[in-house]
Amino acid sequence: MKHQLSRRHVVDMCRTMLERGYLKATEGNVSVRIPGHELYAVTPSNYDYDKMRDEDICIVDFNGKHVPDLDGAGGLVPSIECGMHANIYRTRPDVNAIVHTHQPYASALAFLRKPIPALTDEQVRFLGREVAIIDYAPSGTGFLAKNVQKKVVSGDNAFIIANHGVVAVGTDPDRAVFNMALLEKVSIAYLMALTSEAGKVYTIPSTIREIAFSKLKKDEKRIASQIVDAVEPVRVDAGEQLPSADAVADAEADAAGYITDKSEMSSAELGYSISEYLDVDDTLRRLKALVAQPLRGLRHDALLDTLNYYETKCTASKEITERAKKRIPGGVQHNLAFNYPFPLAIDKAEGAYLTDRDGNVYIDFLQAGGPTILGSNYAPVNERVAEVIKESGPVTGLFHEYELKLAEIINKYMPHIEMYRSLGSGTEAVMAAVRAARAFTGKKMVIKVGGAYHGWSDTMVYGLRVPGSFRMNAKGIPWGATERTRETFPHDLGTLRRKLIENKVRGGTAAVIVEPLGPESGTRPVPYDYNAAVRKLCDEFGALLVFDEVVTGFRTGLGGAAGYFGVTPDLTVFGKAVSGGYPMAGGVGGRSDIMNVFGSGLDGKSGAHIQVGGTLSANPLSCAAGYFAIQEMARTNAPVIAGRAGDRLTRGLQRLIDKYGLPYVAYNQGSIVHLESSGVMLLDMRNPVKLLKENKGRKKLMEQMGAAYAAHGIITLAGSRMYTSMADTDEVIDDALNRFDQVFALVEGV
User: How far apart (Å, rounded) are the C-alpha atoms in residues 33 and 42?
Assistant: First the structure.
């Protein structure tokens, strides 16, 4: 049955008013706007409220035309006042629910045709400057519908229809019922005042009336903008079959029966996690619409319940993280662990799940920030790594076979990585890539895309997270360190060309570094042909193209994002995934002539080799883990399975967003799934006033949503990004979608 939630709201409103005595038998009518559609759900004509079911509620469009459906009201027809409801919804985008009743005291004023003046500030705050009289017209006629429409433009929320009854409207179903009840309360008081001492009914001062009314209008404007500034949500039919990760996994298992060794298969033959590249223009349009709207977060009571979960169910986490503040700056060692309202302490990770110190189990969509494509704590890799470490220990200080094996298997699936140098982290790898580019080209300038995160080195803490912010996050970094770093706005090839021209005058650009899916793992997704265009510009200006594949390497597929897009970078930076989640994970690889500047040792020739190092770089533990993890990813085709899990999760989220009429945006690039509820990551310095005004509020909303997801058993990255893994079966994803459903039902206005 379509639009069941809205139908349920109508039935619940009827039950409430029936219990309170505001509805009798079949009199009056009730409706609720269907979010994201120009439709509303309304009570049927001449049908007993006490017997009403969800399927009895009728669906009507904004022209007042009945839209019957097979699973809905059947032979029932909507209320004769459906034209009046349609006119109100068209005229007042802030109105999401309407109540029309014949309640006794307000109806008495309908017979007297007396408007209710501003008696109390509460009345004005919720109902309007006055409760006006709507001119008489016969019931169910277009004349009455037009008369009502003329009055509701005032912004008031309650009206008395001459010789008929009342209409109360609200920003949500609960508010509409509240306004109707408040109207009856005010009507009783006004009638008593009139009969007690005629002609001497006092009203509140006009100043107080205007202050109260301005608050009402502010709320209405905020709610209205959620309709006016919204774009049509992605439509996902309730009966649509979601993409299946299980189907891919089963196909791989069947294939294993006759293809026992995939070692000869190329990365292209194995496939990629992205089944279909997203419509970037449409996605950005939706993201811009989200940022244009006011915040839409949890109801206050739902936020309190979320915080109560942490206080009552996560006491062990709170205790240990409070202790940690005495010995660890900020209480945690890594930004991923900063959770609102306090960090969770994890004791166990396995497959698709995390377990905290209190025994709470969570679906793990963090996956350590992305590297564990096989799933957390993957036993087949652990067992083989343990065998190596049993022989050599985690580090020898000298050469080990798995240094070579890791470099060879990377080259096998990414042939453009002719040579590979292991380092300790993605940050170190970026530092080394920049240094190598400058040494090889003899040029000094480096260009990055604003908003992208390339680690925390002095050179790259520039335009961090917020495009156009330059050194805003560069506290403690001398000006000289970023003097030769420039940023360009995302997707803006024109600006990139101008920067390259400007740099040419200053001695040239050594490198342009990009995240191939877009800044922050595709938070600002790039068009499919963007990387090819950047490659062309780099060739034109003699700059090296550096791909930051810290997240996308292997997660996009065994060929990385470079293989998926068919664009060959000069250097590629690796991090987390290159050791399958084991520590000391990072490195840089690329063309052999460029990579030769990394030659180890001291040759006495000034500048012949750049200085990089690290005693623990390329240790047996990390290199063996990376080698075995890549082997397992190829054997199981884990990136593709994880990608289909991402497809299933994204499509399910889009269906929920449509169901609840939320402005949120869900999209994915394979196993990297984005769920934007606040759009804080889309703010930039092109609109600094909006950035300064809304940054904190939007960030806080993102944190609160992340906390709500966790309270319902889902761990995300900062409440806005998720990484799926091979461990995420269809059952796991469907369980997660049920939990997201519960959270979305707690959002304000749903």
Answer: 9
Using H for helix, E for strand and C for coil, what is the string for 322-336?
A: HHHCCCCHHHCCCHH
pLDDT tens string 375-416: 999 999 999 999 999 999 888 888 899 999 999 999 999 999
Identify the pLDDT of residue 606: 47
pLDDT confidence of residue 604: 42
Q: Would you call 624 exposed, middle or buried from its count of C-beta atoms within 10 A (0-12, 13-18, 19+)?
A: buried
Is pLDDT at 612 greater than 90 in this prediction? Answer: no
Contact 273, 555 (CB under 8 A): yes
pLDDT of residue 199: 72
Flag whether pLDDT at 160 surpasses 90: yes
User: Contact at 8 Å (CB) between 183 and 156?
Assistant: no
Q: What is the pLDDT of residues 643-696, one digit of tens each?
A: 999 999 999 999 999 999 999 999 999 999 999 999 999 999 888 999 999 999
d(CA 741, CA 434): 45
Q: What is the DSSP string of 32-73?
A: EEETTTTEEEEPBTT--GGG--GGG-EEEETTS-B---TTTT
DSSP assignment letter at 680: G
Amino acid sitting at position 530: Y
* Contacts of 446 by beta carbon, 8 Å cutoff, 6+ apart: 434, 437, 438, 459, 484, 485, 486, 509, 510, 511, 512, 513
Contact 296, 748 (CB under 8 A): yes
CA distance 460 to 654: 35
Pairing of strands 132-134, 544-548: unpaired
DSSP conformation letters of 597-621: GG--S--S-TTSS-----TTTT-HH
The single residue of 19, 38, 81, 240 carrying the catalytic annotation is: 81
Instruction: Give the number of other CB atoms < 10 A from CB of residue 218.
Output: 10
pLDDT in tens, 568-592: 999 999 998 899 889 888 999 999 9
- Nearest-angstrom CA–CA distance, 340 and 707: 6
Where residue 89 falls among pLDDT bands split at 50, 70, 90?
very high
255-296 pLDDT per residue, tens: 655 545 566 788 888 899 999 999 999 999 999 999 999 999
Q: Please confirm, yes or no, whether 81 is among the known catalytic residues.
A: yes
Q: Can you say whether residue 397 is alpha, beta or left, with left for phi > 0 and alpha for psi between -120 and 50 degrees?
A: left
290, 663 Cβ separation under 8 angstroms: yes
517: which 2 tokens? 């899916």
Instruction: Report yes or no: 289 and 737 within 8 Å, Cβ to Cβ.
Output: no
* Contact by Cβ (8 Å): 663, 294: no
Bond from prior residue into 371 cis (ω within 30 degrees of 0): no
Measured distance CA(629)–CA(580) in Å, rounded: 5
